[in-house]
Amino acid sequence: MEGRTTLQKATRATRMIFLMSGLAMASWAPMVPYAKARLSLDDASLGLVLLAFGGGSMLSMPVIGWLASRYGNDKVIGIAGALMCLALPALALVQTIAMLAIGLFYFGAMLGAVDVAMNAHAVEVERLEGRAVMSGFHGLFSLGGLAGAAGMSVMLASGLPLFACALSVSAVLALIVISQQTSLLRTANRAVRQSFALRMPRGLLLLVGALCFVSFLAEGSMLDWSALLLRDFRGYSAASAGIGYACFSVAMAMGRLTGDRLIAWLGPVWTVRAGAMLAAAGFLMSALMPWHATALLGFVLVGLGAANVVPVMFSAAGRLPDVAPAVSIAVVTALGYAGLLLGPALIGFVAHATSLPVALAAVAALLMLVAASAPVVRR
């Protein structure tokens, strides 16, 4: 009975950490225009500086995978989560481009550390639960993202100073970390103990990572290109073009919150196969059908289809033999972030050579490869 109570507390704490991570990441988005105006950045300069965020995440992940395996996911979540709380207030105050880049690198590194450790912890919780729970965790991340963006926007619209808004969000993040860290599972000294070394992923781990690259690329495509498709090809105004990403985000959150039951019904292989095919159909509908409503419906299908692909991939990575879960999660997460960062740029090159609808249709072709490779999650 005591063991079951401990597991219930760990499951609840994992949900809260995923919620906290989504809240932290999304709270930065409404702050971007303020940073741009304060430092008088043009779009090109801002784009380069923003790469520091992804760079910090990607560079920290291999190291964090080893640290989490050596010292425990709970300790990494507690320390990195606490340090992450310093980032948003600092980013609200930076006065130079260099300091903004350093701040974003630090924020990305801490958020990446929490990301790796919380997913590795989720794999352990899922193993002990004996049923699929990963999609629900990722659903809480999506809800945190919606709450973070909306909450920060509301506070800023009410006239509160940027620093006060950032400090308020950080206080909430700190409260979640402090209150939940002691309920996390103790995993120190239970995984690999070898010295840290960067190694190229091989075999099944590389394949799962490549599939995560494509899945994150599809999500990044929605973030960076959905509004442009609606404005330039479907007749939406610039002010209303953001509704496409909103449709995608809400559909993804709903898909993840119901995903655990779906996985229990379909199994992981068919969840990935059907999800990737549904997302591919959504991309084709949005890219090739010239009507207003079909574009939005396509974005909804992408959100519903892609919702549970990455959670299932993470669970599969955490079960790979001869690799500590934190290490395998670090690899697939880093490759996923690479897709999130590099994918939209690759789509831009294809769009420049052809057109944006053709480029988005190419994403559908990549998702069909994910569907064809779905059996890898069974191994």
Structure at a glance:
The chain is mostly helical. The protein folds into 2 domains: 2-183, Growth Hormone, Chain: A (Up-down Bundle), CATH 1.20.1250; 203-378, MFS general substrate transporter like domains (Growth Hormone, Chain: A). Helix content is 80%, strand content 0%.
List keywords for this structure.
379 residues; Growth Hormone, Chain: A; mainly alpha; globular; 2 domains
What is the average per-residue confidence, as pLDDT, rounded to a whole number?
87
Oligomer: single chain
- Briefly note the structural class of the backbone: mainly alpha
Q: Hey, roughly how much beta strand do the residues contain?
A: under 5%
In CATH, the architecture of the largest domain is: Up-down Bundle
Task: Give the tally of β-strands.
Answer: 0
The gross shape turns out to be globular
Q: Segments where pLDDT lies below 50 for 5+ residues?
A: 193-198
Q: Roughly how many Å apart are the termini? A: 32 Å
Going by CATH, the homologous superfamily of the largest domain would be MFS general substrate transporter like domains
Q: How many helices does DSSP assign?
A: 16
Helix content: over 70%
CATH level 1 name of the largest domain: Mainly Alpha
Estimated radius of gyration: 20 Å
> Element order, helices and strands?
HHHHHHHHHHHHHHHH
Number of domains: 2
How many strands, which pairing sense, and closed or not: the largest β-sheet? Answer: none
CATH fold field value of the largest domain: Growth Hormone, Chain: A
